[in-house]
């Protein structure tokens, strides 16, 4: 049994952080909640709106300038800060992940103060931009799904210049099998602590990894039991195709582009 039957999911500033289709994450959460009979409201809050209180916030990826603006707006937002203090779950993807950390670079590489919700720090990477499919397996430190189940492999695509270093207060979400992820020596991907998760996976990540969506829903619902099963036949077929493509090092989307 789930402890709550009503949820608010907010997609944060899709006008600033909407470049990579991460707005789909909120849609996936809302749909998976509704399939389970939960009364869910999905709010797409553009940067000129007041950010509502929510149970889950989704922050997507974008360009360097809008990322700085989003960090400024979120940093000064009492509703967001209050909801997070009260245990709201937060998913940050790429720019959204970086701005949840202690600092991240602006377009010129100068450090910008992040929200400090994750003990990570991002700098401009030395080499080429990381672009392509990213495959990672849940690290031993990854959060467990409701019911104590391990997260299955994570897939998506990455497109970023930043390298992210984890401090002691954040645990890696996954270990990179193909692609770059956080960059640096440890081959880690993403980070989490409490109910805050950051990742470099676009896709949208929750469409390609519905278990991660259920992790966030489980947190928001306060459920320790597995959530009711939903029909994931199509998404599992797509996952199998993407996992095989990443594992065989085929270039991104080669099966779709002839
Ligand atoms: N501007 C950041 C970087 O390049 C984030 C990019 C993104 O969100 N995809 O590292």
Question: What fold name goes in the CATH topology slot?
Answer: Rossmann fold
Which descriptor suits the 3D outline?
globular
Question: Which ligands occur here?
Answer: glutamine
Structural class: alpha/beta
Strand/helix succession: EHEEHHEHEEEEEEEEEHHH
Percent strand equals 25-35%
Number of strands: 13
**Gross CATH architecture:** 3-Layer(aba) Sandwich
Side-by-side strand order of the widest sheet? 2-1-3-4-13-12-11-8-9
Percent of residues in helices comes to: 25-40%
Sheet of most strands: 9 strands, mixed
Number of domain modules: 1
Counting DSSP H or I runs of 4 or more residues, the number of helices is 7
Q: Give the N-to-C terminal Cα separation.
A: 47 Å
CATH superfamily: Class I glutamine amidotransferase (GATase) domain
Uncertain stretches of 5 or more adjacent residues: 251-258
Please describe what this structure looks like:
This protein has 258 residues and is α/β, with parallel strands linked by helices. It has one domain: Class I glutamine amidotransferase (GATase) domain (Rossmann fold), CATH 3.40.50. The protein is 27% helix and 28% strand. The protein contains seven helices and 13 strands. It has helices spanning 24-35, 64-75, 78-85, 95-100, 205-208, 210-221, 233-247; strands at 6-12, 39-45, 56-59, 89-93, 103-105, 111-113, 120-124, 130-138, 154-160, 162-166, 171-178, 188-193, 196-199. Strands 2-1-3-4-13-12-11-8-9 form a nine-stranded mixed beta sheet, sandwiched between helices. It has a two-stranded antiparallel sheet with strand order 5-6. Helix 1 crosses helix 6. The model is unreliable at 251-258 (pLDDT under 50). Glutamine is lined by residues 20, 61-64, 67, 94-95, 159-162.
């Amino acid at each position: 049994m789930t402890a709550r039957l009503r949820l608010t999911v907010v997609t944060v500033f899709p006008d600033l952080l909407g470049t990579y289709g991460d707005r789909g994450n909120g849609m996936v959460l809302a749909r998976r909640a509704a399939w389970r009979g939960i009364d869910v409201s999905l709010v797409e809050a553009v940067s000129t709106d007041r950010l509502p209180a929510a149970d889950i916030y989704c922050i997507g990826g974008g360009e360097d300038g809008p990322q700085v603006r989003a960090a400024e707006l979120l940093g000064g937002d009492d509703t967001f800060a209050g909801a997070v203090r009260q245990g709201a779950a937060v998913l940050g993807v790429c720019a959204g992940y970086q701005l949840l950390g202690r600092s991240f670079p602006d377009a010129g590489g100068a450090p910008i103060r992040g929200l400090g919700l994750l003990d990570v720090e991002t700098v401009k990477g030395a080499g080429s931009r990381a672009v392509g499919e990213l495959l990672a397996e849940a690290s031993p430190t990854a959060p467990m799904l409701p019911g104590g189940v391990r997260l299955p492999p994570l897939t998506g695509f990455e497109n970023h210049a930043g390298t992210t270093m984890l401090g002691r207060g954040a645990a890696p979400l996954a270990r990179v099998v193909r692609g770059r992820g956080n960059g640096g020596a440890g081959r880690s991907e993403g980070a989490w602590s409490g109910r805050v998760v950051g990742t470099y996976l676009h896709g949208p990540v929750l469409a390609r990894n519905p278990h991660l969506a259920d992790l966030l829903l489980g947190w928001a619902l306060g459920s320790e039991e597995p959530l009711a099963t939903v029909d994931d036949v199509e998404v599992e077929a797509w996952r199998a195709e993407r996992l095989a493509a990443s594992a065989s090092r085929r270039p991104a989307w080669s099966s779709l582009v002839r």
